[in-house]
């Protein structure tokens, strides 16, 4: 694990021994005798503690009796200290400190530290029964409280253990994974485990075979599992679930979650975090943004678009087929269960005709439409739902739209966006679109997205966007909207069914007639066709020039090697 800078802030009432605690650590770890009312921040030597990957800075605090120190804002972990021999100090934990930290919405892990253990004088109290009684209720009331520990700064008892616990809470925080109150793993952890389980379910059958379990173990922990190890894992799951659903030739998702829960309860939270970080999870259980780095290079200004690749479509098809012939809203929601952010992915109702369930064609159409408008968001969503694929493999670049030769290849595309510009957007939305825009439909394996704009929206959202945003414009005759972009245009009539007019464009696109006639039927004017021909991306002159340069380079290279003597190598 790479080095991580880590700040521990010690807070508590005056007189509980904060500065004495830090003095004891300085004396023990730096071999320096010191004692002051408030220490400056000090960096502790990494080799003295259990987690040398932590560059640990310890910060002392001093403030008014009813004030939270400013240094808490920069803390990674908070050590909240009280005096074991002072009941009033213990009461203040709940009545002031934790109450204030919660109200001010500090989210850092909190460790309760009972100092002055040497003053108790009762040896059998060293078994932590006392600290357990203190934090039992605090854990229920304050989710940030992760543990409690006792020490003696005067006798140097347990002071290094306090720092070790703080480092552990920082590196392997418990709160995002497990609720101490409910004794259950958190919803966020369940989402992450669901994604991980799907990625490692190589055959997509919804369970892990012994081979998939072994491959997971080897991949994450670089360790081989034999049959006795696998049997032991299944026994542990069976003991927790109290059934034998995982003692066959596979492990279910519930069994995998149960295994992680049991590990955390056995104080092995480090194992869970090793798994999570291997699959790019951060401490807040969102995926590291480095996973979504853009690998695609294409000319958006020239109208080049991005579509899902055949590989990505096949993976989406495999997910769908786990549920049968159709997908219900509940199944749709379950597929997206691991997603840890708000997404604008299309609703089922955006597919036309409206239906409570969708089939495979409609499922792929929703993805095609989403990818067309924002492939980066689509890739992020693919990653969250458990599809492990490189961005360059998930998408393919399609033809440009700024030249004659490119436009002629437009029929090769899978996704098209038709924009309708009207004076009365609301009327169409209410009457024919069920108040949902855009709408999505599929004909002959091609996806069509139909959006409704009023004139002002057209000016703001179409004319200022890239050429690739619109493939066809349908403009109501009464509109004054005009565009300088090379987009095919036809009239839209609000008295005629929207879908009848859209289908006429789609029929033309799917016909096999002459390409020039096709383009004219699309709505390209003679002027636009001439402009496209003039902007053709690779002219005869350019081709001829390229050949001349190439011949020159070849000839030059020939004469260079023909007449330049070679030196013998030793």
Question: What's the gist of this structure?
Answer:
By secondary structure, this protein is of the alpha/beta class.
Protein architecture, described:
The chain crosses the membrane at residues 538-561. Pfam families: EF_assoc_2, Ras. Keywords: Calcium, GTP-binding, Hydrolase, Membrane, Metal-binding, Mitochondrion, Mitochondrion outer membrane, Nucleotide-binding, Repeat, Transmembrane, Transmembrane helix. GO terms for molecular function: GTP binding; GTPase activity; metal ion binding. It is found in: Mitochondrion outer membrane. This protein is of the alpha/beta class. It folds into 4 domains: 4-171, Rossmann fold, CATH 3.40.50; 184-286, Recoverin, domain 1; 290-397, EF-hand (Recoverin, domain 1), CATH 1.10.238; 404-534, no CATH class. It is 42% helix and 15% strand. It is built from 21 helices and 19 strands. The strands form 6 sheets. It has a 6-stranded mixed sheet, sandwiched between helices. The longest helix is centred in the last third of the chain and has 24 residues, at 540-563. The chain starts with a strand and ends in a 7-residue tail after the last helix. The model is unreliable at 537-570 (pLDDT under 50).
């Amino acid at each position: 694990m790479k080095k991580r800078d880590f700040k521990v802030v010690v807070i508590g009432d005056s007189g509980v021994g904060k500065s004495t605690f830090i003095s004891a650590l300085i004396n023990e770890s730096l071999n320096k005798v010191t004692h002051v009312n408030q220490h400056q921040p000090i960096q502790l030597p990494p080799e003295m503690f259990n987690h040398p990957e932590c560059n640990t800075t310890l910060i002392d605090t001093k403030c008014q009796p009813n004030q939270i120190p400013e240094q808490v804002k920069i803390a990674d972990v908070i050590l909240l200290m009280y005096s074991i021999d002072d009941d009033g100090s213990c009461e203040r934990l709940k009545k002031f400190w934790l109450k204030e930290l919660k109200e001010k919405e500090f989210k850092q892990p909190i460790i309760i530290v009972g100092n002055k253990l040497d003053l108790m004088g009762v040896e059998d109290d060293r078994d932590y029964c006392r600290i357990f009684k203190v934090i039992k209720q605090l854990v229920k009331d304050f989710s940030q409280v992760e543990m409690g520990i006792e020490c003696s700064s005067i006798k140097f008892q347990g002071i290094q253990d306090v720092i070790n616990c703080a480092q552990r809470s920082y590196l392997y925080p418990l709160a995002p994974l497990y609720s101490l109150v409910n004794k259950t793993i958190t919803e966020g952890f369940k989402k992450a485990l669901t994604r991980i389980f799907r990625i490692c379910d190589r055959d997509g059958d919804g369970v892990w075979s012994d081979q998939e379990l072994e491959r997971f173990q080897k991949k994450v922990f670089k360790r081989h599992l034999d049959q006795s190890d696998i049997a032991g894992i299944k026994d542990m799951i069976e003991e927790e679930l109290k059934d034998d659903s995982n003692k066959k030739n596979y492990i279910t998702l519930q069994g995998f979650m149960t295994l992680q829960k049991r590990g955390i309860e056995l104080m092995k939270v480090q194992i869970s975090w090793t798994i999570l970080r291997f699959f790019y999870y951060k401490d807040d259980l969102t995926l590291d943004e480095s996973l979504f780095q853009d690998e695609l290079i294409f000319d958006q200004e020239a109208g080049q678009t991005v579509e899902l690749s055949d590989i990505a479509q096949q993976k989406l098809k495999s997910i769908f087929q786990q549920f049968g012939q159709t997908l219900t809203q509940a199944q749709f929601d379950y597929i997206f269960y691991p997603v840890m952010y708000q997404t604008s992915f299309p609703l089922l109702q955006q597919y036309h005709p409206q239906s409570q369930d969708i089939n495979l064609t409609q499922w792929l159409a929703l993805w095609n439409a989403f990818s067309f408008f924002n492939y980066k968001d689509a890739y992020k969503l693919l990653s969250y739902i458990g599809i492990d694929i490189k961005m360059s493999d998930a998408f393919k670049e399609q033809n440009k739209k700024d030249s004659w030769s490119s436009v002629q290849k437009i029929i090769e595309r899978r996704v098209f966006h038709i924009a309708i510009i009207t004076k009365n957007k609301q009327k169409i939305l209410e009457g024919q679109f069920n108040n949902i825009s855009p709408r999505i439909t599929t004909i002959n394996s091609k996806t069509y997205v139909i959006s409704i704009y009023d004139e002002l929206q057209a000016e703001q959202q179409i004319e200022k966007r890239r050429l690739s945003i619109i493939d066809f414009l349908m403009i109501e005759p009464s509109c004054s909207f005009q565009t300088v972009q090379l987009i095919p245009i036809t009239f839209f009539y609000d008295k005629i069914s929207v879908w009848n007019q859209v289908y006429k464009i789609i029929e033309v696109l799917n016909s096999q007639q002459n390409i020039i006639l096709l383009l004219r039927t699309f709505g390209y004017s003679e002027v636009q066709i001439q402009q496209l021909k003039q902007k053709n991306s690779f002219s005869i002159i350019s081709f001829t020039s390229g050949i001349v340069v190439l011949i020159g380079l070849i000839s030059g290279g020939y004469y260079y090697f023909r007449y330049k003597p070679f030196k013998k190598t030793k």
